[in-house]
Amino acid sequence: ASELGARSPGEPHRRVLLALAHRVSATRRGEESRYGRPEELLADLRAVQSSLADAGAKRHAFGGVQHLIWQVETYGFHLTELEVRQHSQVHTKALAELEGGEAISAQTEEVLEVFRAIADIQSDRGLRAAGRYVVSFTQAASDLANVHRLARHALGDDAPVLDVVPLFETFADLQAAPGILAEAVTFPEFQARMADTGNRLEVMLGYSDSSKDVGPVAANLALYEAQAKIALWAQESGIELTLFHGRGGALGRGGGPANSAILAQPPHSVDGRFKLTEQGEVIFARYGEPAIAMRHIDQVAAATLLASSPSVEQRTSDAAARFADIAAVMDRSSRERFFSLVKAEGFAPWFATVTPMEEIGLLALGSRPARRGLSVESLEDLRAIPWVFAWTQARINLAGWFGLGTALAAVGDEARLTEAYRDWPLLHTMIDNVAMSLAKTDERIARQYLALGDRDDLAQLVLDEMTLTREWVVRLTGGVGLLENKPILQRAVQLRTPYVDALSLLQLRALRALRDPDAASGSGADDEQKRLLLLSVSGVAAGLQNTG
Questions:
Q1: Rounded CA gap, 528 and 344, in Å?
Q2: Residue 546 near residue 437, CB atoms below 8 Å
Q3: Is there a contact between 201 and 175 (Cβ–Cβ < 8 Å)?
Q4: What's the pLDDT tens digit per position in 10-19?
């Protein structure tokens, strides 16, 4: 302080800011004079701002000082918030060991270490640096309570402050979500945290597993219904809800244009707050170029504001009520059609044969293994992300459209469906996304992949549904071909397709060579085919986009 007094005599505000800068430096280095948390720095900055404003220096108070306050409010001492995500069954197993007198496994010890790491981060960088804990496959309110129990096992009374976020993924879990949430908010730990945050609650929705569970059409309708019920419950309970959308780039994982998806959300499910995951090649496509990144963020921000307006909410609500009978028919018929394929005897091994699913699992492309077991004997063994990715690589894109043609045909009334496509944002977005997905399929190449298997009945089922869906989508969107109502997108797809076709044919060659029982395993030629496969997978994903 004496040094600063000599350096800046008669400049009290400069001296204070230099002192703050010194403490920020000490915070970075972990020294004794550090700030304990970002809120302390904010309080000092607001004191400087208030003093400047009282002295008549409003340009300084609400110029540079205000910008610094905004930066501290946004980034704290952490820059980026870390979120932890763990499967509910891992928690259940850990608690059984800890409370049942069993030997503590390495997995359980790791679970406890995560809580200790969160506590260390919060102590070092503030509560916002880490604290959101997402529980995958939340199926009961007890799955959420288990997080707090484990935190106490790890640290006792020194457990970190946690915002436990349920992740509802399967069709059944989405339907059960409102009841699970209503029970969870009665837990003392939830009530205490919500009291500290102004009754805020975050809920994550999974797109991939619900789509693999019941098909893309029924999953979309189930996600809409779940959001509507959760939003209504939150509104009636006085809870400030943020829905966290676990979307991927592929249509089977909730992909597609984000702004149109936001505008199709149920009333009060946005309310000025929209959170989503960005994955795979979508990150580079949307944020790799600053100008495109700003345009994308502008579009998402505008859609979030519009979706929260009373007029848009009323339009969405009215349309959902007016076309509820169509939704019911589409849900039932699309699910039956999807089950006729995926529940057919021998479907899972056939799927692994007609797509490069097994080979994708050998490549260093994902954050998790492609399947939960050692082989694909049932659809439950397979993770949702490679399920979508493998169909995309085979130029079939089945996870994005299968069942829609049957659903629309079951409704049958083209005039009513045209009206619904025009007035119902959910159906409009669904059909436009499917049109894009189908435009990136290629029936000639798809037939070659389907020929890798020995089930002509399943192959024909896929091709028949592809034809039926394409016919209905074209009828509703107008014209004689796909994407004629979106000529810029249509042209972009047409320009890329020939290059992707060549890569797909090379991939087929590599697949046949790698699966040839007469080929010498482990040979140099085998390594070359694996390299060719890797290059083709990356190229097809980049060319088709919407695959992340």
A1: 36
A2: yes
A3: no
A4: 899 999 999 9
Tell me phi and psi for residue 83, to 5 degrees. Answer: -120, 140
**Residue 540 · residue 548 · CB < 8 Å:** no
Can you tell me which residue has the tokens 């609650």?
Answer: 201
371 backbone dihedrals φ, ψ, rounded to 5°: -140, 160
Strands 163-168 and 275-276 turn out to be: unpaired
Q: Would you state the structure tokens that stand for residue 315, as one six-digit string?
A: 């339009």
Helix (H, G, I), strand (E, B) or coil at 84: strand
Q: Residue 436 burial by CB count (10 A; 0-12/13-18/19+): exposed, middle or buried?
A: buried
Predicted pLDDT of residue 279: 74
DSSP secondary structure, 338-394, as one string: HHHHHTSTTHHHHHHHHSSHHHHTTSTT-SS-SBSSSS-SSGGGB-HHHHHHHHHHT
> Per-residue pLDDT for 252 more than 60?
no
Q: Which pair of tokens denotes residue 314? A: 């009323």
Task: Give a three-class secondary structure readout of 263-297.
Answer: HCCCCCCCCCCCEECCCCHHHHHHHCCHHHHHHHH
Q: Measured between alpha carbons, how far is 458 from 340 in angstroms, rounded to an integer?
A: 9
Q: How far apart are CA 386 and CA 372, in angstroms?
A: 11
Q: Report the first-to-last Cα separation within the chain, whole angstroms.
A: 54
Q: Which tokens hold the place of 329? A: 């028919």
The β-bridge relationship of strands 163-168 and 240-246 is unpaired
pLDDT tens-digit series, residues 436-452: 989 999 999 999 999 99
Q: Are strands 130-136 and 275-276 parallel, antiparallel or unpaired?
A: unpaired
- DSSP string over 132-173: EEEEET--SHHHHHHHHHHHHHHHGGGPPP-EEEEEE-SHHH
The CA angle 542-546-548, to the nearest 5 degrees, is 80
Which DSSP string corresponds to 225-250? HHHHHHHHHHHHTT-EEEEEEE--SS
Query: Running DSSP on this structure, what letter comes out for residue 305?
Result: H
Strand order from edge to edge, sheet including 130-136: 82-87, 130-136, 163-168, 200-206, 240-246, 275-276
Residue 133 phi, psi (nearest 5)? -125, 105
CB-side neighbour CA atoms (13 Å) of 277 = 20
CA 145 from centroid of its chain's CA atoms: 24
pLDDT tens-place string over residues 363-407 = 655 555 444 443 455 666 666 677 888 898 999 999 989 999 999
Of 119, 207, 200, 131, nearest in space to 167 by CA: 207
Q: Are the CB atoms for 228 and 267 separated by under 8 Å? A: yes
The pTM of the full predicted model, rounded to 2 decimals, is: 0.85
Half-sphere CA count of 532, side-chain side, radius 13 A = 19
